[in-house]
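User: two proteins, same treatment. go.

Assistant:
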Amino acid sequence: MRINRICFVSVLLPFFAAVSSASELESVVENCNGCHGDDGVSQWSDVPTIAGMPEYVHADALYFFRDNERPCSESEYKQGDTSRPATTMCNAVSDLSDDLIDEIAAYYFELPFIAAQQEFDAGLAATGKGVHDAQCDKCHSDGGSNPDDEAGILAGQWMGYLEASFAEYRSGDREQPKSMQDAIDALSDDEVKALVHYYASQQ
């Protein structure tokens, strides 16, 4: 009987561990959706949609936020907006383990990305397409919409989030590969603005 009990327990332990992990993931996802929208589809211009985001890109971003290696100011949420929590990404992920971060990234990657419906300037978008094709398409193919690039999804993201991200890259506040830094440094303010409108135009 002792052997049977040991076998019984050894079979159940992984089951309970999986249940606990699933429960924890569900709780964290609920918190994530509180800011990023149902199923990771954002409703706010300063918050990115994370549904469909490549696992590597998403997990890497969460590691940086957790370790305070990426800008995390309170401007990431709108003051007085009670429809989502008043928090920052650094606070939101401060206690997450590596394993849980990887599970979160895998979970959202399986969800469909839905482009933000927003106004844009058609003329600037046309100019931005030319800038993208000449300087950005090598790493952000298909107009910045290809998740296989593992370079993030730019097409269809909110303009407010894109503007803030470009500002962080241009100021050097956000860590990036040298190739990305060189590409950003080569862009004028007008080209950055045009790129934002181009990515926003893909709906």
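Protein 2:
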Amino acid sequence: MIEVENLDIGFDNVVLLEHLAFRVEHGQVFVILGGSGCGKSTLLKNMMGLLQPIAGKILIQGTPLKIQEGDPPPFGVLFQSGALFGSMTLAQNVSLPLEKWTGLDDDIIDTIVRSKLRLVGLEGFENYIPAELSGGMKKRAGIARALALEPPLLFLDEPSAGLDPITAVELDELILTLNRNLGTTMVIVTHELESILKIATTCIVLDRDARGIIAEGDPRVLRVESQDPRVVNFFNRQAAGA
């Protein structure tokens, strides 16, 4: 689904991460990990085309990533805050991509919107505005909008951020259900250890000092088998030198 080749990323030619190379296979839940300030969100923004890499390539389904004005992106996105339009109902929020990038009739759009909200457990909330929803419901609505065009790929930025433990677990279950039932490939940035160990098919671990990837693989295996103290500390919630 995604190939990253010899990628250097940063700002104003100041390299934050360099020589990144990894693959995201179809149907995976691929998680980007690392400590604060290591470049997780910057990498995600490069993978979505919101930032341009300093060097290297990002291929999505074999094609260089290039977002053209007026064309729908080849993926959906759940932003950390949900990024819903506060003056619009949930139905209006979810219908936006359909109205912008399809020529479907209103009644067909309405049917699709209702089905996407049902998919994320928000059936009956079509006419609610974001201010009337809990944090978890906003995240679910954001996922419904991200899935409106049925993309094969979904990016999620800190989906569990700001949620209580029970709501976070429920969101993890939703992510796994969507991945299983729809086959959607998911790339997720998170630092929530319980979520990582529950939902990830595979992961990469970034390190700020190394300016790159220090581990890659199944996080459940890395947690118990890695010989790198930085990786061990991350998965066991230990300070360096502990």
